[in-house]
Structures are given as structure tokens and as C-alpha cells.
Design a protein that fits this description.
This protein has about 350 residues and is α/β, with parallel strands linked by helices. Helices cover about 50% and strands about 15% of the residues. The structure holds S-adenosylmethionine. The site of S-adenosylmethionine has 23 residues, from α3, α5 and β2. S-adenosylmethionine binds next to α3, α5 and β2. Belongs to the class I-like SAM-binding methyltransferase superfamily. gTMT family.
Length: about 350
């Protein structure tokens, strides 16, 4: 009898442990699969309607997008993930055009020396390493949302003998892991367009810049609004929404909006320019570079978001052609003190449009 009770108890335990939970596991697996399908359907719907992403989705999306696409980009284009400087317009040395972009921006901003530089949205650190070589002894810190990029940036710095000058880490530009007044040069080349809060972005750039330090922001903007206009046209907004889905971008702003944000920080020497005509040949060159077997195979391998990014190159071209997208260059100096911020008015550079 006792033996029979024990046997029943044992069977009950085993049944509870192995048989009873099974339907629950199956049920939860079914629920997980259903949730996954639901999320997939929602993503397709959002893509078709070019829905705006939440801040959190955007951050995760940016990291994933660059984690997946950077290797292919580096194989075809090298270590700079930005437009080239096309003067003369018919130049075909594209990699050199990208390096020239850095030199020309520094020249335009009047920077001929730097000792501590932060590269905000650094990609795989092409700008940091170039600046480190240009200004010997200079220390650079690069931040990106993509773990792949931060790792690759450090790897390339070590390979190129720059590990003691250049460091890269995963961090958010809207909440940088640096103390106030840490750098004399703030460098942001084509990352501002990813920032969902432009005011917070500019605040952070000013916070980590030392008083009297220089801030450089080169970024995709939409055209300035005309007097009397309160927004872009519906078709312009539609085009930008499609680009946003592909490149993980939030709402755009104009160069004038950036100038206003810098001036609100008491910036001096505010200077702006539109280099859309200088970078004009770039997207055609990128499209052409992708028309070879190696790139096509790489593209097929790197998944949907990279393929959608490739398609969006045509949308970028259209945006530039329409005068909707601007390649905006901005630079300014952080005021020496709060007092300077209130009493000094921005100085004027005669060669550029200054507001
Ligand atoms: C087009 S790439 C430009 C990379 C680099 N500046 C260059 O010119 O090679 C944009 C970069 O911005 C970074 N980024 C976007 N949003 C960011 C954020 N909130 N914080 C830090 N980096 C960000 C991305 O991770 C990526 O490295």
C-alpha cells in the first residue's frame, strides 16, 4: 500500500514536472511566436506608412543599423561614413574626397590646433584618427551607439599605432559620459540628423566644450522656412518620412534652427554655410559603387534594413535636387563665461552667411 502510494506520488511529481508544464510551455511558445508575428506585421505596416519611431526604438534601431551595415560600407568605402568634398565637381578619388571634407571643414571653421577632441557620432573613427594625425599629441574620444563601430574604431586605432591617442566607446550623444568643459574641439560630422532632441544635443555639445572652445556640427538639414511659412509642404514631409524610416532618423530641422539653438547658448562667432553643391556628386558615386558583384552580394547578405538604406539613396538624391535637403555646416565658440554670453554679441565672418 505504502509502495503504491509512493509510486502514485512519484508519478504525480513527474507528471507535474514534465507533462503538466508541457502544455504551458507550448502555450507560451505559441504566444511568443504570435507576439513575434504581431511585431513583424506592425513593422511592415509602419514601414509602409513611414511611421515615426519612438525615441527608444530609434536608439535601438540606429545601433542595429550601423552594426549591420558598417562592415559592408568599410569594405567598399573605407573608414569614413560621410560625404566627400567634391571640388572640382568631377573628381573621382572618392576616398580622398572624404578625407578632404574633414580638412576643408576644419579650415572653414578656422581650426588649426586642438588638444582634446570629442568625435560625437564617430562611426568607426575615421575623423578622430585623421585629426589625431593632423594635430600631433591631440587626444580624441569617440562615441557611437553601435557596439560594432566602437570596437572597430579601437581596432583600427591599434592597427594604425594611435591607440594611445584615440579611444572609442558606446555612449549616447544626448547624455555624454564626459565632465563639463572637457574638450577644446567638439566635432560632429553627420550625426546630428540622428538626434531626436536637437536642443538636448546642442546643450550637451556646449556642456562638454571648454569655455572658448570650438564646436563644429556638419549635418543634414531641411531647407530654411520662407517668411510666412510655418512648415514644409506635405510632399516634402512625405519624402523626409520615407528617408527617416530607412536611415533611422527623427524629425529634421533647418540650419536656421541650429543657429537659434547655438545663439540661445550664448555662442560667439556663429557661422553657417550650405555645402549641398559641394557634396552633390557623392550620392551618384555611392550608387555607382554599389553596382558591382561584390557590393551586390554584400548587400544581399546584410539584410533588409541595409537594402532599404540602399534604396533610400535615390530619395536623398531627390531631396537634394528639390532643394529640400541641405548639407549644413555650422560652427561657433562657447562663451568664455555666462557674463560673456549676456554681454557679447556674435562676431561676423564676412565670407559666410552669419546670423
Ligand atoms: C553617418 S554616421 C557618421 C559617422 C562619422 N561621423 C563619420 O563621419 O565617419 C552617424 C553616426 O552617428 C552615430 N549616432 C547616432 N545617434 C547617436 C547618438 N544618440 N549618440 C551617439 N552616436 C550617435 C551613429 O552610431 C553613427 O556612428
Amino acid at each position: 500500500m505504502f509502495k503504491a502510494t509512493l509510486t502514485i506520488a512519484w508519478i504525480t511529481c513527474v507528471t507535474q514536472a514534465w507533462i503538466v508544464p508541457r502544455p504551458q510551455n507550448r502555450h507560451s511558445t505559441q504566444l511568443q511566436v504570435a507576439a513575434k508575428i504581431g511585431r513583424g506585421v506592425q513593422r511592415v505596416k509602419d514601414s509602409l506608412t513611414s511611421a515615426e519611431r519612438s525615441r527608444e526604438d530609434l536608439k535601438i534601431g540606429i545601433a542595429g543599423f550601423y552594426d549591420r551595415s558598417t562592415k559592408l560600407w568599410e569594405e567598399v568605402w573605407g573608414d569614413h561614413l560621410h560625404h566627400g568634398y567634391y571640388v572640382p565637381a568631377d573628381r573621382t578619388d572618392h576616398k580622398q574626397a572624404q578625407i578632404d571634407m574633414i580638412d576643408e571643414v576644419l579650415k572653414w571653421a578656422g581650426v588649426d590646433q586642438a588638444t582634446r577632441v570629442v568625435d560625437v557620432g564617430c562611426g568607426i573613427g575615421g575623423s578622430s584618427r585623421h585629426i589625431a594625425r593632423k594635430f600631433p599629441g591631440c587626444q580624441t574620444e569617440g562615441i557611437t551607439l553601435s557596439p560594432y563601430q566602437a570596437g572597430r574604431g579601437n581596432e583600427l586605432a591599434a592597427e594604425q599605432g594611435l591607440a594611445d591617442q584615440c579611444r572609442f566607446q558606446v555612449a549616447d550623444a544626448l547624455d555624454m559620459p564626459f565632465a563639463d568643459d572637457s574638450f577644446d574641439l567638439i566635432w560632429s560630422l553627420e550625426s546630428g540628423e540622428h538626434m531626436p532632441d536637437k536642443k538636448q544635443f546642442i546643450n550637451e555639445l556646449f556642456r562638454v566644450c571648454e569655455p572658448g572652445g570650438r564646436i563644429i556640427v556638419v549635418t543634414w538639414c531641411h531647407r530654411d522656412l520662407e517668411p510666412g511659412e510655418t512648415s514644409l509642404t506635405k510632399s516634402e514631409e512625405k519624402l523626409l518620412r520615407k528617408i527617416n524610416r530607412a536611415y533611422y532618423l527623427p524629425q529634421w530641422c533647418s540650419v536656421k534652427d541650429y543657429v537659434d539653438l547655438m545663439e540661445a547658448q550664448g555662442a560667439t562667432d556663429v557661422k553657417r554655410d550650405d555645402w549641398s553643391y559641394i557634396i552633390a556628386p557623392f550620392w551618384k558615386a555611392v550608387i555607382k559603387s554599389s553596382l558591382n558583384l561584390k557590393s551586390v552580394i554584400g548587400l544581399l547578405r546584410s539584410g533588409f534594413s541595409t537594402q532599404r538604406g540602399a534604396y533610400a539613396m535615390f530619395l536623398m538624391l531627390r531631396g537634394y535636387k528639390k532643394g529640400l535637403i541641405k548639407f549644413g555646416c555650422l560652427t561657433c565658440t562657447k562663451p568664455l563665461s555666462k557674463k560673456t554670453e549676456k554681454t557679447e554679441s556674435p562676431s561676423v565672418d564676412k565670407d559666410s552667411e552669419v546670423l
